[in-house]
From TrEMBL:
It is a multi-pass membrane protein. Residues 600-664, 697-755 form the CBS domain. The chain crosses the membrane at residues 68-92, 153-175, 195-215, 227-243, 255-279, 332-356, 368-385, 441-461, 468-487, 515-540. PROSITE patterns: CBS (PS51371). InterPro entries: CBS_dom, CBS_dom_sf, Cl-channel_core, Cl_channel-4, ClC. This is Chloride channel protein. The keyword ATP-binding applies. One of its GO terms (cellular component) is synaptic vesicle. Belongs to the chloride channel (TC 2.A.49) family. It is found in: Endosome membrane; Membrane. Keywords: Antiport, ATP-binding, CBS domain, Chloride, Endosome, Ion transport, Membrane, Nucleotide-binding, Repeat, Transmembrane, Transmembrane helix, Transport.
Length: 760
């Protein structure tokens, strides 16, 4: 017997794996990353850079560049996300107005921009100017009458259908991942799941273009959620330019967390709200360093958008408002009622939308995505046009509902009966009786509310980019404005009632209906998404009113309590479960008294666990095992008899290692012995070269005993981000628990279908 070290000096060849080779450490599509391994690899890389930096000036400069690369990536993400958001806002503004008319002096101007440039616009008729012509005026030279109305109606529907058809076609042909909100998938990716192409360049391009088209088509959806996806695509693109992030999936996710913050920052003009949204709603792993970088990315993105100034009001959002009256304690009751409404709406929406999306997935309906989009667009346009509150863009509707009625407002909602003797400052108009315009606006708002509630259920989840923030806020703002007007009129006509007597004297400006709209919007958005802290911060950054934090907090907390009473899942978690993604939610509690032995595989009656031995299997044996199974990795034991655990080898790395060894090392054949020990085994003379694979072996896999409570196992998986953990008893391998097994067990314990978890 001889050992392999004497074989013609082949020791160096056998250790070729001490040098890294391409693709080691990467993961296959639809698989979960190993957070512990990624963190360990980054620590090794950092240690190596630090030790090299002392060798020369050049290495020191390289270490500085490596340290600064994170801030450079954040700067680039902020600049690109802010620019794209500004371009999207300008394009949406123009294309939404294009459905109703065109600017003759410059066709690329929106209605508002067209009339800004006109010298013939009067203040009273500021929406009318000779340069802006409706389609009926342009085509048949008529602005009033039945024929003009019918022509405008027809062209409105035609434009909407064209925009929607173009959007769904682009998504279907070029980037199927560009559909939907993107936030459920971003949450899953940030938890460590790999979805290749979801954050790719094509997805970024197509999502940006189609987002403009679908919002302009008038469908009941928003651009805010998809802007988070767009920003994360920017983050993925820039992180691929730096090896520090491109070669480490854990580090890449730190960049994506910050990109999500930048996305919300430009969507709502709320940089601090964006950081809190990333922390509360989407991120799985959020170290302090990521918090600072998220803050910087959100700041740069907001600054870039402010420089573009898409709304021409020097604000970051369309619906910036300022109220001039404080709120009173008695108003907390209607605010809490709006919170209850928001929670009920959130529950209704989630249940109906998930039922519809499940039907779409399981019936023939899902085979015709283009037809579905066309039908929903046609229904939306036909019903929306006659009602002025559904005809305009949803952002403009929210802006009008949030507005306080000043002396210069021309909206129907501000058609109050004025006292001719009134001599008060412009900003302090007293409560007045409602005029006929307010009553007709209330009817139109009630119809618009019912329409929005129903149509949004069918719109969200179609094969086009679709955000949910703006439709949810619109539903809440409509309900809130109606409640606000009701309270205002009650206070005016019954100011001698005990609840109004202390704070609402005749001639005083007591109730602000716009504030009720804002509180209602926060309540409905909270009911659907279950956001609390970030929601309140986003809302007060939107409106610039720190004074109204308490009403917003009361509504947000109430809506969450009411919605949680019917089910803990928000809309994004519900869509994650619907798609079967392996997402272990931090908010989920596991209280059942099961043990690791109840969940581990193999179960009783199943085939024994597939394992590798440390020095007795050939290359052919390993390749056969890989071919006959589809496991992500294999435990390595001393021998089949002892089953003492040595470590764990990943499937992908075994395949790559054997493939590279056959190409680069002479003498490796099918009957070469594979060994994972430090020293080669003793082999008979003339036997082929053995193959050393110790470098790819994880010598410290995470293990638990068979009597570990599952509550602890779930906690370990959640907090350490494990892919799998091995179950042992006294050092002997008994089985394995994967993330998929944990999720299926949790689903089973919650009386849900465990087969709905499709990926590991």
């Amino acid at each position: 017997m001889v050992n392999a070290g004497d074989m013609n000096g082949s020791g160096n060849l056998m250790d070729f794996l001490d040098e890294p080779f391409p693709d080691v450490g990467t993961y296959e599509d639809f698989h979960t990353i190993d957070w512990l391994r990624e963190k360990s690899r980054d620590t090794d890389r950092h240690r190596k850079i630090t030790s090299k930096s002392k060798e020369s000036i050049w290495e020191f400069i390289k270490s500085l560049l490596d340290a600064w690369s994170g801030w450079v990536v954040m700067l680039l993400i902020g600049l690109l996300a802010g620019t794209l958001a500004g371009v999207i806002d300008l394009a949406v503004d123009w294309m939404t107005d294009l459905k109703e008319g065109v600017c003759l002096s410059a066709f690329w101007y929106s209605h508002e921009q067209c009339c800004w440039t006109s010298n013939e616009t009067t203040f009273d008729d500021r929406d009318k100017c000779p340069q802006w012509q409706k389609w009926s005026e342009l085509l048949v030279s008529q602005s009033e009458g039945a024929s003009a109305y019918i022509l405008n109606y027809f062209l409105y529907i035609t434009w909407a259908l064209c925009f929607a058809f173009l959007a769904v076609s682009l998504v279907r042909v070029f980037a199927p991942y560009a559909c939907g909100s993107g936030i459920p998938e971003i949450k899953t990716i940030l938890s460590g799941f790999i979805i290749r192409g979801y954050l790719g360049k094509w997805t970024l391009l197509i999502k940006t273009v189609t987002l403009v088209l679908v919002v302009s088509s008038g469908l009941s959806l928003g651009k805010e959620g998809p802007l988070v996806h767009v920003a994360c695509c920017c983050g993925n693109f820039f992180s691929s330019l730096f090896s520090k992030y491109s070669k480490n999936e854990g580090k890449r996710r730190e960049v994506l967390s910050a990109a999500a913050a930048a996305g919300v920052s430009v969507a709502f003009g709320a940089p601090i709200g964006g950081v809190l949204f990333s922390l509360e709603e989407v991120s799985y792993y959020f170290p302090l360093k990521t918090l600072w970088r998220s803050f910087f990315a959100a700041l740069v993105a907001a600054f870039t958008l402010r420089s573009i100034n898409p709304f021409g009001n020097s604000r970051l959002v369309l619906f910036y408002v300022e109220y001039h009256t404080p709120w009173y304690m008695a108003e907390l009751f209607p605010f809490i009622l709006l919170g209850v409404f928001g929670g009920l709406w959130g529950t209704l929406f989630i249940r109906c939308n998930i039922a519809w999306c499940r039907r779409r997935k399981t019936t023939r309906l899902g085979k015709y995505p283009v037809l579905e989009v066309i039908v929903i667009t046609a229904i939306t346009a036909i019903i929306a046009y006659p009602n002025p509150y559904t005809r305009r863009s949803t952002s403009e509707l929210i802006s009008e509902l949030f507005n306080d009625c000043g002396a210069l407002e021309s909206s129907q909602l501000c058609d109050y009966i004025n006292d001719p003797n009134m001599t008060r400052p412009v900003d302090d108009i007293p409560d007045r009786p409602a005029g006929p315009g307010v009553y007709s606006a209330m009817w139109q708002l009630a119809l618009a509310l019912v329409f929005k509630i129903v149509i949004t259920i069918f719109t969200f989840g179609m094969k086009i980019p679709s955000g949910l923030f703006i439709p949810s806020m619109a539903v809440g703002a409509m309900a809130g404005r109606m409640v606000g007007i009701g309270v205002e009129q009650l206070a005016y006509h019954h100011h001698d009632w005990i609840i109004f007597r202390n704070w609402c004297r005749p001639g005083a400006d007591c109730v602000t209906p716009g504030l009720y709209a804002m509180v209602g919007a926060a309540a409905c958005l909270g009911g659907v998404t279950r956001m609390t802290v970030s929601l309140v911060v986003i809302m007060f950054e939107l409106t610039g009113g720190l004074e109204y934090i308490v009403p917003l907090m009361a509504a947000a907390v109430t809506s969450k309590w009411v919605a949680d009473a019917f089910g803990k899942e928000g809309i994004y978690e519900a869509h994650i479960h619907l798609n079967g993604y392996p997402f272990l939610d931090v908010k989920d509690e596991f209280t059942h008294r099961t043990l690791a032995t109840d969940v581990m595989r193999p179960r009783r009656g199943e085939a024994p666990l597939s394992v590798l031995t440390q020095d007795s299997m050939t290359v052919e044996d390993v390749e056969t095992l890989i071919k006959e199974t589809d496991y992500n990795g294999f435990p390595v034991v001393v021998s089949k008899d002892s089953e003492r655990l040595i470590g764990f080898a990943q499937r992908r790395e075994l395949i790559l290692a054997i493939k590279n060894a056959r190409q680069r090392q002479d003498g490796v054949v099918s009957n070469s012995i594979v060994y994972f020990t430090e020293d080669p085994p003793e082999l008979p003379p003339n036997s082929p070269h053995p193959l050393k694979l110790r470098r790819i072996l994880n010598l410290s896999p995470f293990t638990v005993t068979d009597h570990t409570p599952m509550e602890t196992v779930v906690d370990i998986f959640r907090k350490l981000g494990l892919r799998q953990c091995l179950v042992t008893r006294s050092g002997r391998l008994l089985g394995i628990i994967t993330k998929k097994d944990v999720l299926r067990h949790m689903a089973q314990m919650a009386n849900q279908d465990p087969e709905s978890i499709m990926f590991n």
